[in-house]
Amino acid sequence: MGFFISKSLDQNMKKQQEFMLMNSRLQLERQILMQNQMRERQVAMQIAWSREFLKYYGAFFGIAAAGCIVGAMKKRKPQIFLPIVPLSIVLVYQLDLGYGTLATRMKAEAETILENESERLALPYGPPTFESIEKARRAQSTFFIEK
């Protein structure tokens, strides 16, 4: 009689373990998908910010360029055109980031770094461990006093 109960308990425990494994995999997949969606939203916000900034900067650049052209023609000094050079570099950068291929090139460069220069990505003291996190939590915790 005890053998049948033990066998039944073992089967139930095995089913429970399989369920827990499946559940943890499902939870991990959801976390990965959520983190990826958050990353995609952050990148989209960065590109949208760049496009919005470009509108204001483009207006500023147009006014500044027109002012430099008019000033250079009236005073007959070509040096007045010099501010257009750095301003145009910033304008081209913003255009490339907002509408060009800068994001794609940055992604390719990041992949190269991950593949060939992974030692540059190491954190000081290595990755966080459970012990280091728990030590910091205990130091900041005011709810529980552990001895």
Essential attributes:
single chain; 147 residues; mainly alpha; elongated
Which sequence of SSEs, written as H and E, runs from N to C?
HHHH
**Helical content band:** over 70%
Strand residues, percent: under 5%
Provide mean pLDDT, rounded: 89
What would you note in describing this structure?
The structure is a single chain. This protein is 79% helix and 0% strand. It has four helices and no strands. It has helices spanning 2-75, 84-99, 102-116, 130-140. Helix 1 (2-75) runs antiparallel to helix 2 (84-99). The longest helix is centred in the N-terminal third of the chain and has 74 residues, at 2-75. The model has no long low-confidence stretch (mean pLDDT 89). This is Plasminogen receptor (KT). The chain crosses the membrane at residues 54-74, 80-99. Keywords: Membrane, Receptor, Transmembrane, Transmembrane helix. Pfam families: DUF2368 (PF10166).
Can you describe this structure in just a few lines?
79% of the residues lie in helices and 0% in strands.
Spell out the blueprint of helices and strands.
Layout: H1 2-75, H2 84-99, H3 102-116, H4 130-140
Helix pairs in contact: 1-2
